[in-house]
Amino acid sequence: MRLENVSNEPQKVWDVNDGGRSYEIAPGCVENLSDSICKLFLEDSECAKYVIPFKDVEIPNVEGAEMIWVANNTGNPEFPKTFVTQEYNRQSKTFVKVELPHPLSEAHMVFFNWSEGQKDVTDSDGKVYRHKNMRKKMIKLPPYHRRQLPMPVVYAWQNCLNFGPQEASASMILSRAPSPHEPNSTWDLDEIMLFGQEVKSGFVLQNGLKWSKDLPQQNKKPVPMEYDRMRQKALNAWYYVSINPSVRLPSREAWKSIVEEQKAMQLVQTHENLKQENKLLKKGS
Predict the structure, then answer these.
(1) Residue 211 pLDDT class (50, 70, 90 cuts)
(2) Residue 209 has pLDDT above 60, yes or no
(3) Alpha carbon separation from 89 to 38, 83, 85, 96, 102 (Å, rounded)
(4) What pLDDT, in 10s, does the model give residues 22-74?
(5) Alpha-carbon dihedral of residues 275, 278, 282, 285, nearest 10 degrees?
(6) Spans of all domains in the chain
(7) Which pLDDT score, from 0 to 100, does residue 217 have?
C-alpha cells in the first residue's frame, strides 16, 4: 500500500510492539509500505491528518491515442552506486574527473508537469474568439509504481528526460503491463521467492534477503512485523523484474504444477527430518 505525506513536515510513528521502532515519511513523499506499517500511520490521530492513501492524478484520454504502461525505474539494482563525470576546476583551469552518487541508485518519486495545451472558447454565435490555456497537471510516479498514460503524454515526458542529464534519463521507462497472476501483497514470502526463481534465474533481492529461512525466528515462528517487512522487500525487488517487457511469466497451469511439486518436496524433507529425530531419540534412550 502507498501512503502520501501531504504536509510540509515529516510524519513519524513508533511501533510499541516492536521495541519502539520508528517509521517516517518525508514531506510530500510517497512510500510503498507493508500493510502493518500503513495501519500505524492511518490509526495515529496526528499522522492521519496528513498521511493519506496515494491516488494517481487523472489524465484525460487523448482521442485516438494509445494507452501505454510506464514505470518508475529509480532504485533499480542494475544501476551503479556512483558514476564518473568531468567538472571544470577553476584553480587548474582544466576539466577533472570526479565520482558522484548515481541519481537513480536510490528509489524516489519522479514527476512530470503535463500541459493539455489550449482550449477553444466560442461565443454565442459559435465563432472561436480566443484560446484558453489549460492548467498543468502534476503526474507523480512513486517508487515501485507503474500506471497507464496516453502516448502523447509519455512521449512528452521522454523528450523532457532526454534533454536532462544522461544518467537520469532512465528514471521513467516503458513497462510490461501487470499480469493478474504475479506476486502481490496477498502472496506469502515463500511463494514470491519461488515465483522469482522460476521467472529469473539467480533472482537476487535487496538487503541480502534470499529465502524465508533467513527470517527472524521466535519460537520457530516468524515475527509478524519482521515477516511483513521482508515480504514487502521481496515485492519491491520483484517489481524491477516485472516491469521488464522481455520477462516471460509462467502460465497459471505451469505455476500450479510448480507449487504442487515444491509442496511435495517439502513433505518429503519433513518426513526425513522426523525419521532422523526418531533415530536420535532411540539412540539416546
Answers:
(1) very low
(2) no
(3) 48, 18, 13, 7, 21
(4) 888 888 788 888 788 888 888 888 888 888 888 887 876 777 888 999 999 99
(5) 160
(6) 1-55, 67-173, 176-250, 254-285
(7) 45
Cα separation, 210 vs 204, whole angstroms: 7
User: 67-72 and 146-150: which strand pairing?
Assistant: antiparallel
Question: What does each C-alpha distance from 259 to 182, 250, 266 come to in angstroms?
Answer: 14, 12, 11
Section 232-253 average pLDDT: 80
> What type of residue sits at position 252?
R
SS (H, E, C) the chain: CEEEECCCCCEEEEEHHHCCEEEEECCCCEEECCHHHHHHHHHCCCHHHCEEECCCCCCCCCCCCCEEEEEECCCCCCCCCEEEEEEEECCCCEEEEEEEECCCCCCCCEEEEEECCEEEEECCCCCEEEEEECCEEEEEECCCCEEEEEHHHHHHHHHHHHCCCHHHCCCEEECCCCCCCCCCCCCCHHHHHHHHHHHCCCCCCHHHCCCHHHCCEECCEECHHHHHHHHHHHHHHHHHHHCCCCCCCCCHHHHHHHHHHHHHHHHHHHHHHHHHHHHHHHHHC
Instruction: For residue 146, give the C-alpha cell.
Output: 507503474
What percentage of residues in the chain have a pLDDT greater than 90?
Answer: 5
pLDDT digits (tens, 9 = 90+) for 252-277: 677 677 667 766 666 666 666 666 76
Backbone dihedral region for residue 226 (phi beyond 0: left; psi -120 to 50: alpha; all else: beta): alpha
pLDDT digits (tens, 9 = 90+) for 83-94: 888 888 888 888
